[in-house]
Amino acid sequence: DGAFAARYNPRHYQFIPGWVGWEYPVDEMHAAMTFPSNIILATEGTEMDWAQQRMDRWDGELQPRASNDMTFLPNYAHEAWALQNSRHKNRNVSSDEFLRSYWKRAAQFGPTPEAARELDERIGWLDLIVHVRAVDRNTYDHKQPPEHYCTAAAVRRALDAGMRVGVMSNKRSMVARVFGDLAPRLVPVKKLSAWGGMAFLLGGGFGGIVQHAYSGWSAYSTVPAAIKAAPLLTTYDASRARAEDPNSHHRLQALARAAPHLPPHGFLYQCDNVTGFLDHVRSRRP
Questions:
Q1: Nearest to 161, CA basis, from 257, 68, 281
Q2: How far is C-alpha 261 from the geometric centre of its chain's CA atoms?
Q3: Residue of higher predicted confidence among 213 and 257
């Protein structure tokens, strides 16, 4: 068992990407990216944190949510905002007004000017960026074989069509396992910190994102795709994803519904529509 081996063999354990939970060091984020000037962080003990902790209610589609589960989604964030304001009898904004402001501010996140110039010189425009999200110490015992993904097949089609494709991953050896003989044809996006990689995705120097992630969900590449209205191909088998982790599928759909700036056909693609995804990517070329 992989998890057992990792737990009792420190030499083996050190090669598994780390998991630090939902901890977001603000100083590291500020060093790697630009922030909106009027951003307020909802840290523990603040009024927004109080509101999030009281959002234990039915979500209307799947099952009761935990008190602060998925509150990063803009439609749930509005609920927390309204709840916080109702506590103090402040003016509540409508959900439409909130979402317009939410996405306007979100679009102001990105790489610092210095990082943007360096990334442009070192990497340049990519038709596609592939995010290979390796399992970590939180998900190491989950086995999802390559045949459950369409990643390599989709990327081969893009490469054969003359597209320039980059790849980033939290575990570089995973790239070779996923792509095999295709790996040398990919542009490696490396030498970036975790937040530097997020800033790169928020910079939008690409046409679309191919996401190879456990159960078809990774906020790391999904949220930047939504912010930049960039087409996102989730390559894990959709039927398996819904069966194994229905909340992942629900998060994707909820995020799409809460983004009025996205095109009418949305930004999410799955393995049954690689052609549509690649056509969308081509339409975004500068």
A1: 281
A2: 17
A3: 213
How far apart CA 40 and CA 275 sit, in angstroms, is: 41
Dihedral over alpha carbons 261, 189, 123, 33 (to 10 degrees): 50
Q: How far apart are the first and last CA of the chain?
A: 48
8 A C-beta contact, residue 219 and residue 197? no
Q: What is d(CA 25, CA 177) in angstroms, rounded to the nearest whole number?
A: 31
Does 276 score more than 90 pLDDT? yes
Distances (CA, A) of 232 to 38, 104, 130, 189: 29, 20, 10, 18
Distance CA 42, CA 26 (A): 12
pLDDT at residue 62 above 70?
no
Residue-wise pLDDT for 37-58, tens only, equals 777 666 666 666 666 665 544 4
Whole-number Å distance between alpha carbons of 138 and 25: 19
